[in-house]
Design a protein that fits this description.
The protein is α+β, with helices and mostly antiparallel strands and 480 residues long. The protein has three domains: 226 residues, 3-Layer(aba) Sandwich (Vanillyl-alcohol Oxidase, Chain A, domain 3), CATH 3.40.462; 57 residues, Uridine Diphospho-n-acetylenolpyruvylglucosamine Reductase, domain 2 (2-Layer Sandwich), CATH 3.30.43; 112 residues, Uridine Diphospho-n-acetylenolpyruvylglucosamine Reductase, domain 3 (2-Layer Sandwich), CATH 3.30.465.10. Helices cover 30% and strands 22% of the residues. It has 15 helices and 20 strands. Strands 16-13-15-14-18-19-17-20 form an eight-stranded antiparallel β-sheet. A five-stranded antiparallel β-sheet has the order 6-7-11-9-10. Strand 14 and strand 15 form a beta hairpin. Helix 8 packs antiparallel against helix 9. The N terminus is likely disordered. The structure holds flavin-adenine dinucleotide (FAD).
Length: 480
Amino acid sequence: MINRRTLIKNSVLGTLGASAALGLSGCGKSSMGPTAALDYDFQTGKPLPWMNWAKNQGCQPAHRIAPQSEEELLSLMTSTSNGGLRPMGAGHSFSAVVPTEGTLISTDLLNGVLSVDAEQNVAEVWSGTRLHQLGPALNLQGQALTNLPDINYQTIAGAISTSTHGSGVTMGSLSSMIEELTIATPSGELVKCNNSSNAELFNASRCGLGALGVITKVKIRTVPAFNLEQRTTVEPLDVVLEDIENEKASNRNFEFLAFPHTSMALVVRTNEVDTSAPIINSGEEDPTAIFQIRDAYQSLGVLPLVGKFAYQKIIDSAADGAATVTSGPSYTVLAHDRVVPFREMEYTVPAEAGPECLKEILATIVEKDIPIIFPIEYRYTQQDDIWLSMFSQRDGCSISVHQFADEDYIEYFAAIEPIFQKYNGRPHWGKLHTLGPQEFSNLYTHWNDFLSVRESVDPNGRMLNSHLKHLFGLGASSHA
Ligand SMILES: Cc1cc2nc3c(=O)[nH]c(=O)nc-3n(C[C@H](O)[C@H](O)[C@H](O)COP(=O)(O)OP(=O)(O)OC[C@H]3O[C@@H](n4cnc5c(N)ncnc54)[C@H](O)[C@@H]3O)c2cc1C
Protein backbone atom coordinates (compact mmCIF):
# COMPACT_ATOMS: atom_id res chain seq x y z
CA MET A 1 0.00 0.00 0.00
CA ILE A 2 1.47 3.35 -0.98
CA ASN A 3 0.11 6.82 -0.74
CA ARG A 4 0.42 9.79 -3.06
CA ARG A 5 3.67 10.92 -1.45
CA THR A 6 5.19 7.46 -1.73
CA LEU A 7 4.07 7.29 -5.36
CA ILE A 8 6.32 10.19 -6.15
CA LYS A 9 9.20 9.00 -4.02
CA ASN A 10 9.22 5.31 -4.95
CA SER A 11 7.40 4.71 -8.19
CA VAL A 12 8.30 7.76 -10.21
CA LEU A 13 11.86 8.09 -9.03
CA GLY A 14 12.29 4.32 -9.17
CA THR A 15 11.10 4.29 -12.75
CA LEU A 16 13.36 7.16 -13.61
CA GLY A 17 16.17 5.05 -12.19
CA ALA A 18 15.11 2.22 -14.50
CA SER A 19 14.89 4.65 -17.40
CA ALA A 20 18.35 5.87 -16.64
CA ALA A 21 19.62 2.31 -16.73
CA LEU A 22 18.13 2.07 -20.23
CA GLY A 23 19.98 5.20 -21.21
CA LEU A 24 16.81 7.30 -21.27
CA SER A 25 17.35 9.74 -18.46
CA GLY A 26 16.65 13.39 -19.06
CA CYS A 27 15.52 12.98 -22.66
CA GLY A 28 12.19 13.31 -24.43
CA LYS A 29 11.30 16.96 -23.95
CA SER A 30 7.81 17.68 -25.18
CA SER A 31 7.24 19.17 -28.60
CA MET A 32 5.99 22.43 -27.08
CA GLY A 33 8.75 25.00 -26.85
CA PRO A 34 9.44 27.08 -23.76
CA THR A 35 7.54 30.34 -23.28
CA ALA A 36 9.78 33.09 -22.01
CA ALA A 37 8.73 34.88 -18.85
CA LEU A 38 8.43 38.64 -19.15
CA ASP A 39 11.59 40.52 -18.36
CA TYR A 40 11.80 44.18 -17.34
CA ASP A 41 14.87 46.30 -16.69
CA PHE A 42 14.76 48.61 -13.70
CA GLN A 43 14.97 52.18 -14.96
CA THR A 44 16.40 54.96 -12.81
CA GLY A 45 13.74 57.47 -11.85
CA LYS A 46 10.87 55.22 -12.87
CA PRO A 47 8.65 53.17 -10.58
CA LEU A 48 9.36 49.46 -10.27
CA PRO A 49 7.88 47.46 -13.12
CA TRP A 50 5.02 45.15 -12.16
CA MET A 51 4.69 41.44 -12.98
CA ASN A 52 2.13 38.86 -11.98
CA TRP A 53 2.88 35.58 -10.17
CA ALA A 54 2.89 33.56 -13.41
CA LYS A 55 5.15 36.14 -15.13
CA ASN A 56 2.94 36.22 -18.21
CA GLN A 57 1.57 39.73 -17.51
CA GLY A 58 3.54 42.84 -16.71
CA CYS A 59 3.75 46.58 -17.17
CA GLN A 60 5.87 49.63 -16.59
CA PRO A 61 3.46 52.00 -14.84
CA ALA A 62 4.07 55.75 -14.81
CA HIS A 63 3.16 55.83 -11.11
CA ARG A 64 2.85 53.23 -8.35
CA ILE A 65 0.99 54.31 -5.25
CA ALA A 66 0.20 52.59 -1.96
CA PRO A 67 -2.15 54.83 0.02
CA GLN A 68 -2.32 54.40 3.78
CA SER A 69 -5.86 55.67 4.21
CA GLU A 70 -9.11 56.15 2.30
CA GLU A 71 -8.54 59.93 2.34
CA GLU A 72 -5.08 59.55 0.77
CA LEU A 73 -6.48 57.14 -1.82
CA LEU A 74 -9.27 59.53 -2.82
CA SER A 75 -6.91 62.45 -3.06
CA LEU A 76 -4.44 60.48 -5.22
CA MET A 77 -7.22 59.16 -7.47
CA THR A 78 -8.60 62.63 -8.14
CA SER A 79 -5.25 64.38 -8.51
CA THR A 80 -3.81 61.90 -11.04
CA SER A 81 -4.91 63.17 -14.39
CA ASN A 82 -2.77 61.22 -16.86
CA GLY A 83 -3.37 57.61 -17.87
CA GLY A 84 -5.54 54.95 -16.34
CA LEU A 85 -5.95 53.88 -12.73
CA ARG A 86 -5.67 50.18 -11.93
CA PRO A 87 -6.06 48.57 -8.53
CA MET A 88 -3.85 45.57 -7.88
CA GLY A 89 -4.08 42.84 -5.29
CA ALA A 90 -1.45 40.13 -4.93
CA GLY A 91 -0.87 39.71 -8.70
CA HIS A 92 -2.24 36.17 -8.75
CA SER A 93 -4.35 36.57 -11.89
CA PHE A 94 -3.18 35.06 -15.17
CA SER A 95 -5.28 37.37 -17.35
CA ALA A 96 -4.41 41.03 -18.03
CA VAL A 97 -6.84 42.40 -15.44
CA VAL A 98 -4.18 44.52 -13.70
CA PRO A 99 -1.54 46.02 -16.08
CA THR A 100 -1.50 49.73 -16.85
CA GLU A 101 0.92 52.29 -18.14
CA GLY A 102 -0.87 54.83 -15.94
CA THR A 103 -1.17 54.54 -12.16
CA LEU A 104 -0.99 51.22 -10.38
CA ILE A 105 -2.73 51.31 -7.00
CA SER A 106 -1.60 48.85 -4.35
CA THR A 107 -3.80 48.17 -1.33
CA ASP A 108 -0.92 46.62 0.63
CA LEU A 109 -1.17 49.33 3.29
CA LEU A 110 -4.95 49.08 3.58
CA ASN A 111 -4.52 45.91 5.51
CA GLY A 112 -5.93 44.17 8.58
CA VAL A 113 -9.11 43.25 10.38
CA LEU A 114 -11.27 46.21 11.49
CA SER A 115 -13.84 44.32 13.54
CA VAL A 116 -15.24 40.86 14.14
CA ASP A 117 -18.81 40.36 15.31
CA ALA A 118 -18.96 36.74 16.46
CA GLU A 119 -22.65 37.03 17.32
CA GLN A 120 -23.70 38.29 13.90
CA ASN A 121 -20.99 36.19 12.15
CA VAL A 122 -19.55 39.06 10.18
CA ALA A 123 -16.12 40.68 9.99
CA GLU A 124 -15.04 43.96 8.45
CA VAL A 125 -11.59 43.93 6.88
CA TRP A 126 -9.41 46.26 4.83
CA SER A 127 -9.40 45.34 1.17
CA GLY A 128 -5.67 44.61 0.93
CA THR A 129 -5.79 41.92 3.63
CA ARG A 130 -4.35 38.67 2.31
CA LEU A 131 -6.34 35.50 2.80
CA HIS A 132 -3.41 33.94 4.65
CA GLN A 133 -3.60 36.79 7.20
CA LEU A 134 -7.35 36.57 7.52
CA GLY A 135 -7.50 32.89 8.58
CA PRO A 136 -5.41 33.22 11.77
CA ALA A 137 -6.87 36.67 12.58
CA LEU A 138 -10.45 35.37 12.45
CA ASN A 139 -9.49 32.22 14.32
CA LEU A 140 -8.28 34.31 17.26
CA GLN A 141 -11.86 35.58 17.52
CA GLY A 142 -13.34 32.08 17.16
CA GLN A 143 -14.45 32.73 13.56
CA ALA A 144 -13.58 31.43 10.07
CA LEU A 145 -14.55 31.78 6.41
CA THR A 146 -16.84 29.00 5.17
CA ASN A 147 -14.51 28.12 2.32
CA LEU A 148 -11.21 29.11 0.70
CA PRO A 149 -9.64 28.76 -2.72
CA ASP A 150 -6.72 26.45 -3.43
CA ILE A 151 -4.18 29.05 -2.28
CA ASN A 152 -4.34 31.90 0.21
CA TYR A 153 -1.89 34.49 -1.15
CA GLN A 154 -4.66 36.67 -2.70
CA THR A 155 -6.00 39.89 -1.19
CA ILE A 156 -9.65 39.80 -0.21
CA ALA A 157 -10.55 42.54 -2.78
CA GLY A 158 -8.52 40.89 -5.56
CA ALA A 159 -10.13 37.53 -4.84
CA ILE A 160 -13.71 38.81 -4.89
CA SER A 161 -13.09 40.97 -7.98
CA THR A 162 -12.73 37.78 -10.09
CA SER A 163 -15.21 35.62 -8.14
CA THR A 164 -12.49 33.40 -6.70
CA HIS A 165 -13.84 30.12 -5.32
CA GLY A 166 -12.97 26.83 -3.67
CA SER A 167 -15.03 23.65 -3.99
CA GLY A 168 -18.23 22.48 -2.29
CA VAL A 169 -21.79 22.25 -3.60
CA THR A 170 -23.25 24.06 -0.61
CA MET A 171 -20.68 26.85 -0.70
CA GLY A 172 -20.50 29.94 -2.87
CA SER A 173 -17.49 31.90 -4.10
CA LEU A 174 -15.76 34.46 -1.88
CA SER A 175 -17.76 37.19 -3.66
CA SER A 176 -20.97 35.59 -2.42
CA MET A 177 -19.79 35.94 1.21
CA ILE A 178 -19.63 39.75 0.95
CA GLU A 179 -22.38 41.60 2.84
CA GLU A 180 -21.20 45.14 2.20
CA LEU A 181 -18.32 46.92 0.56
CA THR A 182 -16.87 50.41 0.49
CA ILE A 183 -15.52 51.60 -2.84
CA ALA A 184 -13.57 54.71 -3.86
CA THR A 185 -14.91 55.75 -7.26
CA PRO A 186 -12.84 57.55 -9.90
CA SER A 187 -14.88 60.71 -9.33
CA GLY A 188 -13.55 60.86 -5.76
CA GLU A 189 -16.50 59.55 -3.76
CA LEU A 190 -16.40 56.91 -1.06
CA VAL A 191 -19.53 54.80 -1.51
CA LYS A 192 -20.88 52.13 0.84
CA CYS A 193 -22.97 49.52 -0.91
CA ASN A 194 -24.96 46.48 0.10
CA ASN A 195 -28.20 44.74 -0.84
CA SER A 196 -30.37 47.67 0.23
CA SER A 197 -28.16 50.69 -0.36
CA ASN A 198 -26.56 51.31 -3.79
CA ALA A 199 -27.65 47.78 -4.63
CA GLU A 200 -26.75 48.03 -8.33
CA LEU A 201 -23.19 49.06 -7.55
CA PHE A 202 -23.09 46.21 -5.01
CA ASN A 203 -24.21 43.67 -7.62
CA ALA A 204 -21.62 44.94 -10.08
CA SER A 205 -18.65 45.39 -7.75
CA ARG A 206 -18.83 42.10 -5.84
CA CYS A 207 -17.15 40.74 -8.98
CA GLY A 208 -16.13 43.94 -10.76
CA LEU A 209 -12.63 43.30 -12.17
CA GLY A 210 -11.43 46.54 -10.60
CA ALA A 211 -13.43 48.44 -13.24
CA LEU A 212 -15.70 50.43 -10.91
CA GLY A 213 -13.26 51.91 -8.43
CA VAL A 214 -10.97 50.79 -5.64
CA ILE A 215 -12.58 48.71 -2.90
CA THR A 216 -11.27 49.87 0.46
CA LYS A 217 -13.18 47.71 2.96
CA VAL A 218 -15.45 44.69 2.91
CA LYS A 219 -17.85 43.15 5.39
CA ILE A 220 -17.61 39.41 4.95
CA ARG A 221 -19.84 36.68 6.36
CA THR A 222 -18.07 34.34 8.78
CA VAL A 223 -18.97 31.17 10.67
CA PRO A 224 -17.82 29.85 14.05
CA ALA A 225 -14.29 28.42 13.70
CA PHE A 226 -14.22 24.72 12.77
CA ASN A 227 -11.73 21.96 12.05
CA LEU A 228 -11.43 19.88 8.88
CA GLU A 229 -9.87 16.60 7.86
CA GLN A 230 -8.70 16.28 4.27
CA ARG A 231 -8.13 12.83 2.75
CA THR A 232 -6.38 12.50 -0.60
CA THR A 233 -6.24 9.28 -2.60
CA VAL A 234 -5.58 8.11 -6.16
CA GLU A 235 -8.64 6.36 -7.60
CA PRO A 236 -10.01 5.23 -10.99
CA LEU A 237 -11.71 8.24 -12.59
CA ASP A 238 -14.65 6.30 -14.04
CA VAL A 239 -15.60 4.99 -10.58
CA VAL A 240 -15.44 8.53 -9.16
CA LEU A 241 -17.59 9.94 -11.97
CA GLU A 242 -20.17 7.15 -11.69
CA ASP A 243 -20.67 8.05 -8.04
CA ILE A 244 -20.36 11.81 -8.51
CA GLU A 245 -23.81 12.78 -7.15
CA ASN A 246 -23.12 10.90 -3.94
CA GLU A 247 -19.58 12.32 -3.67
CA LYS A 248 -20.88 15.86 -4.06
CA ALA A 249 -23.60 15.36 -1.48
CA SER A 250 -21.70 13.38 1.13
CA ASN A 251 -18.50 15.44 1.37
CA ARG A 252 -18.33 19.01 2.65
CA ASN A 253 -15.71 19.86 0.06
CA PHE A 254 -15.11 17.54 -2.86
CA GLU A 255 -12.73 17.91 -5.78
CA PHE A 256 -10.41 15.84 -7.90
CA LEU A 257 -7.52 16.19 -10.30
CA ALA A 258 -7.62 13.91 -13.34
CA PHE A 259 -4.29 12.71 -14.78
CA PRO A 260 -4.34 13.12 -18.59
CA HIS A 261 -3.31 10.00 -20.58
CA THR A 262 -4.28 7.75 -17.66
CA SER A 263 -7.52 6.47 -16.17
CA MET A 264 -6.79 7.82 -12.69
CA ALA A 265 -7.59 10.87 -10.57
CA LEU A 266 -6.30 12.33 -7.33
CA VAL A 267 -9.44 12.65 -5.20
CA VAL A 268 -9.63 15.19 -2.37
CA ARG A 269 -12.43 14.78 0.22
CA THR A 270 -12.62 17.29 3.06
CA ASN A 271 -15.01 16.98 5.98
CA GLU A 272 -15.59 18.61 9.31
CA VAL A 273 -14.13 16.98 12.44
CA ASP A 274 -14.45 17.87 16.08
CA THR A 275 -12.11 20.63 17.22
CA SER A 276 -10.92 18.32 19.99
CA ALA A 277 -9.81 15.66 17.47
CA PRO A 278 -6.01 15.26 17.25
CA ILE A 279 -4.32 17.19 14.43
CA ILE A 280 -3.00 14.80 11.79
CA ASN A 281 -0.39 15.30 9.12
CA SER A 282 0.39 11.97 7.53
CA GLY A 283 2.93 13.45 5.16
CA GLU A 284 2.92 17.00 3.87
CA GLU A 285 2.63 17.16 0.12
CA ASP A 286 5.78 17.96 -1.78
CA PRO A 287 4.62 20.96 -3.84
CA THR A 288 7.34 20.27 -6.44
CA ALA A 289 6.29 16.62 -6.97
CA ILE A 290 4.67 17.58 -10.26
CA PHE A 291 8.16 18.11 -11.74
CA GLN A 292 9.00 14.48 -10.96
CA ILE A 293 5.82 13.30 -12.69
CA ARG A 294 6.81 15.43 -15.69
CA ASP A 295 10.29 13.85 -15.75
CA ALA A 296 8.73 10.39 -15.68
CA TYR A 297 6.33 11.23 -18.49
CA GLN A 298 9.04 12.75 -20.64
CA SER A 299 11.49 9.94 -20.02
CA LEU A 300 8.95 7.22 -20.68
CA GLY A 301 7.28 9.04 -23.53
CA VAL A 302 10.20 8.31 -25.84
CA LEU A 303 9.71 4.54 -25.54
CA PRO A 304 7.63 3.52 -28.54
CA LEU A 305 4.35 1.84 -27.57
CA VAL A 306 5.31 0.94 -24.01
CA GLY A 307 5.94 4.52 -22.85
CA LYS A 308 2.33 5.50 -22.27
CA PHE A 309 1.61 2.06 -20.80
CA ALA A 310 4.48 2.41 -18.32
CA TYR A 311 3.32 5.90 -17.37
CA GLN A 312 -0.21 4.63 -16.73
CA LYS A 313 1.29 1.88 -14.55
CA ILE A 314 3.10 4.44 -12.41
CA ILE A 315 -0.05 6.41 -11.79
CA ASP A 316 -2.07 3.18 -11.30
CA SER A 317 0.34 1.98 -8.65
CA ALA A 318 -0.67 4.82 -6.35
CA ALA A 319 -4.27 3.63 -6.32
CA ASP A 320 -3.58 0.86 -3.80
CA GLY A 321 -2.19 3.38 -1.40
CA ALA A 322 -3.40 4.69 1.90
CA ALA A 323 -4.83 8.20 1.94
CA THR A 324 -2.70 11.22 2.68
CA VAL A 325 -4.47 12.86 5.61
CA THR A 326 -4.19 16.35 7.02
CA SER A 327 -6.39 17.95 9.64
CA GLY A 328 -6.60 21.08 11.73
CA PRO A 329 -8.32 24.48 11.77
CA SER A 330 -10.16 24.97 8.45
CA TYR A 331 -7.87 27.72 7.15
CA THR A 332 -4.80 25.48 7.57
CA VAL A 333 -6.38 22.61 5.62
CA LEU A 334 -8.21 24.26 2.69
CA ALA A 335 -5.35 26.24 1.09
CA HIS A 336 -2.16 24.70 -0.29
CA ASP A 337 1.33 25.77 -1.35
CA ARG A 338 1.71 26.30 -5.09
CA VAL A 339 5.38 26.90 -5.82
CA VAL A 340 5.64 25.44 -9.33
CA PRO A 341 4.95 28.25 -11.82
CA PHE A 342 2.20 27.50 -14.31
CA ARG A 343 -0.37 29.14 -16.60
CA GLU A 344 -4.05 28.28 -16.30
CA MET A 345 -7.36 28.40 -18.14
CA GLU A 346 -10.55 27.62 -16.16
CA TYR A 347 -14.15 27.58 -17.29
CA THR A 348 -17.23 27.01 -15.18
CA VAL A 349 -19.87 24.91 -16.92
CA PRO A 350 -23.36 24.21 -15.54
CA ALA A 351 -22.86 21.72 -12.68
CA GLU A 352 -24.72 18.89 -14.42
CA ALA A 353 -22.52 19.20 -17.55
CA GLY A 354 -19.24 18.74 -15.62
CA PRO A 355 -18.65 14.99 -16.12
CA GLU A 356 -19.36 15.03 -19.90
CA CYS A 357 -17.23 18.12 -20.42
CA LEU A 358 -14.31 16.59 -18.53
CA LYS A 359 -14.58 13.29 -20.45
CA GLU A 360 -14.48 15.18 -23.75
CA ILE A 361 -11.40 17.13 -22.66
CA LEU A 362 -9.54 13.97 -21.64
CA ALA A 363 -10.55 12.19 -24.86
CA THR A 364 -9.37 15.16 -26.94
CA ILE A 365 -5.98 15.14 -25.21
CA VAL A 366 -5.56 11.47 -26.13
CA GLU A 367 -6.92 11.86 -29.69
CA LYS A 368 -4.69 14.83 -30.45
CA ASP A 369 -1.81 13.25 -28.53
CA ILE A 370 -1.25 16.47 -26.58
CA PRO A 371 1.86 15.95 -24.41
CA ILE A 372 0.35 17.25 -21.18
CA ILE A 373 0.79 15.77 -17.73
CA PHE A 374 -0.52 18.60 -15.55
CA PRO A 375 -3.61 17.20 -13.76
CA ILE A 376 -6.98 18.74 -14.66
CA GLU A 377 -8.74 20.25 -11.66
CA TYR A 378 -12.47 19.63 -11.18
CA ARG A 379 -14.54 21.52 -8.57
CA TYR A 380 -18.12 22.52 -7.70
CA THR A 381 -19.49 25.85 -6.41
CA GLN A 382 -23.01 26.95 -5.43
CA GLN A 383 -24.84 29.57 -7.50
CA ASP A 384 -25.20 33.21 -6.46
CA ASP A 385 -26.92 36.40 -7.62
CA ILE A 386 -23.84 38.43 -8.53
CA TRP A 387 -24.00 39.91 -12.04
CA LEU A 388 -20.62 38.76 -13.42
CA SER A 389 -19.88 35.84 -11.12
CA MET A 390 -19.12 32.63 -13.01
CA PHE A 391 -21.76 31.12 -10.70
CA SER A 392 -24.42 33.73 -11.45
CA GLN A 393 -27.82 32.02 -11.33
CA ARG A 394 -26.48 28.53 -11.88
CA ASP A 395 -24.57 25.97 -9.81
CA GLY A 396 -21.20 25.57 -11.44
CA CYS A 397 -18.58 22.92 -12.14
CA SER A 398 -15.19 24.57 -12.66
CA ILE A 399 -12.66 22.68 -14.76
CA SER A 400 -9.10 23.98 -15.04
CA VAL A 401 -6.31 23.10 -17.43
CA HIS A 402 -2.74 24.06 -16.55
CA GLN A 403 0.61 24.12 -18.30
CA PHE A 404 4.09 24.58 -16.81
CA ALA A 405 5.30 28.19 -17.14
CA ASP A 406 8.33 27.06 -19.14
CA GLU A 407 6.19 25.29 -21.76
CA ASP A 408 3.91 26.72 -24.40
CA TYR A 409 0.27 26.61 -23.31
CA ILE A 410 -1.24 28.15 -26.44
CA GLU A 411 -1.70 25.01 -28.55
CA TYR A 412 -3.11 23.02 -25.61
CA PHE A 413 -5.52 25.70 -24.38
CA ALA A 414 -6.68 26.40 -27.97
CA ALA A 415 -7.60 22.72 -28.36
CA ILE A 416 -9.61 22.69 -25.12
CA GLU A 417 -11.33 26.10 -25.10
CA PRO A 418 -13.93 25.18 -27.79
CA ILE A 419 -15.01 22.23 -25.61
CA PHE A 420 -15.66 24.58 -22.69
CA GLN A 421 -17.65 26.84 -25.00
CA LYS A 422 -19.67 23.92 -26.34
CA TYR A 423 -20.83 23.26 -22.74
CA ASN A 424 -21.79 26.93 -22.25
CA GLY A 425 -18.78 27.55 -20.01
CA ARG A 426 -17.92 30.90 -18.46
CA PRO A 427 -14.21 31.69 -18.18
CA HIS A 428 -12.67 32.60 -14.81
CA TRP A 429 -11.99 36.36 -15.04
CA GLY A 430 -8.54 35.94 -13.51
CA LYS A 431 -7.44 33.12 -15.83
CA LEU A 432 -6.59 32.85 -19.52
CA HIS A 433 -9.31 32.85 -22.17
CA THR A 434 -10.03 34.42 -25.54
CA LEU A 435 -13.67 35.53 -25.15
CA GLY A 436 -15.02 39.02 -25.89
CA PRO A 437 -18.21 41.08 -25.40
CA GLN A 438 -20.35 39.12 -27.86
CA GLU A 439 -19.85 35.86 -26.00
CA PHE A 440 -20.25 37.50 -22.59
CA SER A 441 -23.56 39.07 -23.52
CA ASN A 442 -24.84 35.54 -24.21
CA LEU A 443 -23.34 34.06 -21.06
CA TYR A 444 -24.50 36.66 -18.53
CA THR A 445 -28.11 37.85 -18.12
CA HIS A 446 -26.91 41.02 -16.40
CA TRP A 447 -24.07 41.83 -18.84
CA ASN A 448 -25.69 45.07 -20.03
CA ASP A 449 -26.62 46.06 -16.47
CA PHE A 450 -22.97 45.73 -15.52
CA LEU A 451 -21.90 47.84 -18.51
CA SER A 452 -24.40 50.59 -17.59
CA VAL A 453 -23.24 50.77 -13.97
CA ARG A 454 -19.61 50.86 -15.12
CA GLU A 455 -20.40 53.69 -17.55
CA SER A 456 -22.23 55.66 -14.86
CA VAL A 457 -19.42 55.47 -12.26
CA ASP A 458 -16.57 55.91 -14.76
CA PRO A 459 -17.84 57.67 -17.91
CA ASN A 460 -14.29 58.57 -18.97
CA GLY A 461 -13.00 55.01 -18.63
CA ARG A 462 -10.26 55.94 -16.16
CA MET A 463 -10.41 52.52 -14.52
CA LEU A 464 -9.92 50.63 -17.79
CA ASN A 465 -6.86 49.08 -19.39
CA SER A 466 -6.75 47.60 -22.90
CA HIS A 467 -7.83 44.13 -21.70
CA LEU A 468 -10.93 45.51 -19.97
CA LYS A 469 -11.76 47.74 -22.95
CA HIS A 470 -11.68 44.63 -25.10
CA LEU A 471 -13.89 42.65 -22.69
CA PHE A 472 -16.43 45.46 -22.50
CA GLY A 473 -16.55 46.05 -26.27
CA LEU A 474 -14.84 49.44 -26.08
CA GLY A 475 -12.12 48.64 -28.64
CA ALA A 476 -8.51 47.60 -27.93
CA SER A 477 -6.94 44.19 -28.13
CA SER A 478 -7.42 41.48 -25.55
CA HIS A 479 -3.87 41.64 -24.09
CA ALA A 480 -4.57 38.08 -22.91
C1 LIG B 1 -1.32 29.58 -7.95
C2 LIG B 1 -2.72 30.12 -8.14
C3 LIG B 1 -3.80 29.43 -7.60
C4 LIG B 1 -5.10 29.93 -7.77
N1 LIG B 1 -6.14 29.23 -7.22
C5 LIG B 1 -7.40 29.68 -7.40
C6 LIG B 1 -8.51 28.97 -6.85
O1 LIG B 1 -8.36 27.97 -6.15
N2 LIG B 1 -9.76 29.43 -7.13
C7 LIG B 1 -9.97 30.53 -7.90
O2 LIG B 1 -11.12 30.88 -8.14
N3 LIG B 1 -8.94 31.25 -8.39
C8 LIG B 1 -7.67 30.85 -8.15
N4 LIG B 1 -6.62 31.58 -8.65
C9 LIG B 1 -6.91 32.88 -9.30
C10 LIG B 1 -6.90 34.03 -8.28
O3 LIG B 1 -7.62 33.68 -7.12
C11 LIG B 1 -7.60 35.26 -8.89
O4 LIG B 1 -7.03 35.61 -10.10
C12 LIG B 1 -7.62 36.44 -7.90
O5 LIG B 1 -8.37 37.47 -8.48
C13 LIG B 1 -6.22 36.96 -7.57
O6 LIG B 1 -6.30 37.85 -6.47
P1 LIG B 1 -5.15 38.93 -6.23
O7 LIG B 1 -5.30 39.49 -4.87
O8 LIG B 1 -3.84 38.38 -6.61
O9 LIG B 1 -5.61 40.07 -7.26
P2 LIG B 1 -4.95 40.58 -8.62
O10 LIG B 1 -4.68 39.42 -9.49
O11 LIG B 1 -3.83 41.50 -8.31
O12 LIG B 1 -6.18 41.41 -9.21
C14 LIG B 1 -7.34 40.72 -9.64
C15 LIG B 1 -8.44 41.73 -9.98
O13 LIG B 1 -8.86 42.38 -8.78
C16 LIG B 1 -8.83 43.79 -8.97
N5 LIG B 1 -8.56 44.40 -7.65
C17 LIG B 1 -7.55 44.12 -6.81
N6 LIG B 1 -7.68 44.87 -5.69
C18 LIG B 1 -8.79 45.64 -5.85
C19 LIG B 1 -9.44 46.62 -5.06
N7 LIG B 1 -8.99 46.98 -3.87
N8 LIG B 1 -10.56 47.20 -5.55
C20 LIG B 1 -11.07 46.85 -6.76
N9 LIG B 1 -10.48 45.91 -7.55
C21 LIG B 1 -9.36 45.32 -7.10
C22 LIG B 1 -7.72 44.01 -9.97
O14 LIG B 1 -7.83 45.26 -10.61
C23 LIG B 1 -7.98 42.85 -10.91
O15 LIG B 1 -9.03 43.16 -11.78
C24 LIG B 1 -5.32 31.14 -8.49
C25 LIG B 1 -4.23 31.83 -9.02
C26 LIG B 1 -2.94 31.33 -8.84
C27 LIG B 1 -1.76 32.10 -9.41
